[in-house]
Amino acid sequence: MTTQTMMGRTKMNRNVFERRESGVRSYARSFPVKFVKAQGATLTDEQGREYIDFLSGCSSLNYGHNHPVLKAALAAYIDSDGVTHSLDMETDAKADFLEEFEATVLKPRDLDYVVQFPGPTGANAVEAAVKVARKVTGRTNVIAFTNGFHGCTLGALALTGNKHHRGGAGLPLGNVTRMPYDGYFEHGDSAAQIEQMLSDPSSGVDAPAAFIVETVQGEGGLNAASFDWLRAIERIARKHGALLIVDDIQAGVGRTGSFFSFEPAGIDPDIVTLAKSISGYGLPMALTLIRRDLDIWKPGEHNGTFRGNCHAFVTATAALKAFWRDGEFEASVNAKGRMIKQRFEALAREYKDDIDGLKGRGMMLGVDVGSGEASSAIIKECFANGLVIETSGPNDEIVKCLAPLTIDEAQLERGLDILSEAVAKVFSASVKAAA
Q1: Which of 10, 11, 199, 410 is spaced 20 to 30 Å from 156 by Cα?
Q2: Facing residues of 367 across strands?
């Protein structure tokens, strides 16, 4: 095939996205190339150009792309004609996952959750969590927090604060009371304010079925709640007969340094939602972990066709075995998190007039560059120089680093170099324009 023919086919293939794919697509607009290969923390486009991946499928690829241990486990299972789809029937793949999850994750942390497979996405896990909380308590109101993001299905969207996403609902989103997250107000303790409102019979806030909280708000701007605040929210929930749901879909599975993001706070959620990287391989899989005495579902009362993804069970099991049976992987994640933090702190010092500080925890970190215009220019410059990285926050003002947890230190440093160079170019250009 001639070079001219290949270029023609490439253009034709690109045109199909414009011609046939819905305008709802978003990431493709920021990274307008067709990727054809992925390994570790590297993406390769159809022209053979390589990019360092600091997006990681929005934390769905904590172990990177096509990790060889996970790939081998999946290939062996497929080669053996293992069951692919099982609804909620019993399979070896599911049994192996549940045994490994119990032994490697739950028992060492003294947790006794039952595992619900609600469907393949994080939103499915959130919908199940809120439904069972309302079923258990007999209450309808749920307390969610400013800048929280929990999904775009209608129940999860009602819990989500983002105006852009809420605008797509097409109907009122109710049965949720929005409360201020930790640090939302410059002064004052929001936990104390929440306690006062729930204790006041004239506040107008109905007794809640549950609180749902992210310990680090992934889409809301990498706001990291203090451990004291999280413990206060747990106490308030207990006092007022509400369940505590931790949405660990983006912050869990090692992203903040421990398997669950809430572990360092010493809290004990009633329900936990997991998705994204729980499959280990980017395969669709979600879990709703429910305290055993709260599991009052009737058979089939909440279901979904794709709640039995055996390929995801296989790679999830392999990931737990490879990364979580001892503390070595967790220690490496925390070491790399400190590297990123040091680099971001240095950037914030160097550009103190432009960067409002560091956000997040562990390897879920970002810098606040003040506006969506600045962050957009930075990620565009990063992409031009071989780095895929995204933004978050109410105005997209946070440049957000979600590098694979398995990335080697040299590649991590190179990606941080590209980001630093992009920040320098954008802010030096803005200074020149102002002059």
Answers
A1: 199
A2: 358, 399
Handedness of CA 419, 420, 422, 426 (dihedral sign): positive
- Asked if residue 8 is part of any domain, the answer here is no
Spatial separation of the C-alpha atoms in residues 394 and 58, rounded to whole Å: 17
Domain assignment of residue 307, given as a range? 69-323
Closest CA to 176 of 124, 122, 213, 201: 213
Average pLDDT over residues 88-102: 98
pLDDT digits (tens, 9 = 90+) for 168-188: 999 999 999 999 999 999 888
Same domain, residue pair 268 and 152: yes
Last residue of a domain, one of 323, 339, 363: 323
Answer whether 250's CB lies under 8 Å from 58's CB.
yes
Q: Which residue has the tokens 């990019």?
A: 51
- Mean local confidence (pLDDT), 282-298: 98
Query: Same domain, yes or no, for 301 and 401?
Result: no
Same domain, residue pair 390 and 313:
no
Which DSSP string corresponds to 248-312? -TTTTTTTTSSSSTTGGGT---SEEEE-GGGGSSS----EEEEEGGG--PPTTSS--TTS-BHHH
CA distances to 104, 137, 370 from 302, in Å:
27, 17, 43
Q: What is the CATH number of the domain that holds 385?
A: 3.90.1150.10
